[in-house]
Amino acid sequence: MDRNNRARNNVPQTNRRRFLKGGAAVAGLAAGAVQSAKAVPPESELKVKGTTKELIAYGERSRFVKSIRTPVAERDSPDAFGLMFHVNTPLADLVGSITPSSLHYLATHRGSFIPEIDPQQHRLMIHGMVDRPLIFTMDELKRFPSVTRVHFLECIGNRAKPTHKTVTETHGMTSNSEWTGVLLSTLLKECGVQNGATWIVTEGAEEIKGASSVPLGKAMDDCLIAWGMNGEPIRPQQGFPLRIIVPGFEGIFQTKYLRRIKVVDRYYMTYNDYGHINPDPKTTALGNQMGPKSVITYPSGEQQLSGPGAYEISGLAWSGAGAIRNVEVSTDGGKNWKQAELRTPAFRMAHVRFALPWRWDGKECVILSRCTDELGTIQPSRAQAAAYFNKPLTPDFRVPGADNTIQSWRIMSNGSVRNEFA
Ligand SMILES: Nc1nc2c(c(=O)[nH]1)N[C@H]1C(S)=C(S)[C@@H](COP(=O)(O)O)O[C@H]1N2
Ligand SMILES: [Mo]
């Protein structure tokens, strides 16, 4: 046998050994978890419609899949006008790192509504401190070189509370999508930014306007004027037909229904700033980069382990400052940490899925994750955040600005999981 043949013959051998070793791990699953191969669904359930015009025109999920968005409990949604304005992504039900567009979290301000905008009629105006003020149609925007990037969005209200039971309640106001559009820097160069300009103000088309002041440096760096989301036009609730993506900044900067960008020489107060963020331009500019943040989505609050044995701990990590470099998981309340694997590409300012195979011994324990981003910043615990802000660590200690502290889950000996809030 020549060397090549031998090498080739070795492949199945190695694979077979690996397969057998893998089998041993599966045998460690809780009793009854692995069903016999004969246990196929009853024939009645195999009969599906599936070819009607309605079902093929725009795909529908299986009727057995029930994940839905739910209103954020603390935010009176629906409000007095019957409008839903803060709605959580069902994080516990998701796999991988992309949030399905239909389940993206939603934050639309009090009294606001989802405008129905005809893309043929929509315009984006860029004016203010520019040499050439310009008005773009959607078609004109699409003639510029486009970019497609994965980025998370997160509302600054996304923070765990002692009353929260599930990861959807503690962390559901963040989602992750593939966005397609033109770089704002491309458009600003087309308009010619004048000397002395330092900020831009972005404005949406509905009456709340979703206006925000963004530092010009950020605007020229990586902001995206996006019309695409996960392979199709942005959904109405996410800002159809046009929104700005300000990667890594808090949600309020991500103006939906974008119709106007004014280039200016100072920070402008907008409706968004009222009772919301610190209007001091310096601290505002520093305070709105999210994370680094991570959370275990399985096992998480109100889920149930079926008994001791093999499981995979899994969750999401993200940072407003760049890519996630490392995620660690502890299964003993933070005494010892193990390095988790990153299961999806670690894009900058994007969710990454992490996982750690784990064998539960059936004893009560506390599990938690912490991440490190490309700047080397490590996600803090609530105790560290309280010490940093010189406040006592009580359940009602509220992290000022964006809360990126570590989330812990307590697994009880009966396999139930609870929010462990210090
Ligand atoms: N025009 C407009 N843009 C807006 C808002 C709004 O109410 N109107 N809400 C902001 C807030 S507070 C957040 S957190 C994000 C949420 O984006 P999403 O609804 O697509 O999740 O959009 C921002 N952009
Ligand atoms: Mo928000």
Look up the CATH topology of the largest domain. Answer: Sulfite Oxidase, Chain A, domain 2
**Quaternary structure annotation:** single chain
Helix content: 10-25%
Q: How many β-strand stretches?
A: 22
CATH architectural name of the largest domain:
Alpha-Beta Complex
Return the domain count: 3
Number of helices: 9
What would you say this structure looks like, in words?
With 422 residues, the protein is α+β, with helices and mostly antiparallel strands. It folds into 3 domains: 1-40; 70-287, Alpha-Beta Complex (Sulfite Oxidase, Chain A, domain 2); 293-420, Immunoglobulin-like (Sandwich), CATH 2.60.40.650. It is 17% helix and 27% strand. The strands form 5 sheets. Strands 5-4-13-8-9 form a 5-stranded mixed beta sheet. Strand 16 (324-330) and strand 17 form a beta hairpin. The model is unreliable at 1-24 (pLDDT under 50). The structure holds the ligand Nc1nc2c(c(=O)[nH]1)N[C@H]1C(S)=C(S)[C@@H](COP(=O)(O)O)O[C@H]1N2 and molybdenum atom.
Please describe the topology of this protein.
Layout: H1 3-27, H2 43-46, H3 53-57, E1 70-71, E2 86-88, E3 106-107, E4 123-128, E5 134-137, H4 138-141, E6 147-154, H5 167-171, E7 174-183, H6 184-191, E8 199-204, E9 212-215, H7 216-221, E10 224-229, E11 232-233, E12 243-245, E13 258-264, H8 281-287, E14 293-298, E15 309-318, E16 324-330, E17 338-339, E18 341-342, E19 352-360, E20 365-373, H9 382-388, E21 408-411, E22 417-420
The chain binds the ligand Nc1nc2c(c(=O)[nH]1)N[C@H]1C(S)=C(S)[C@@H](COP(=O)(O)O)O[C@H]1N2 and molybdenum atom.
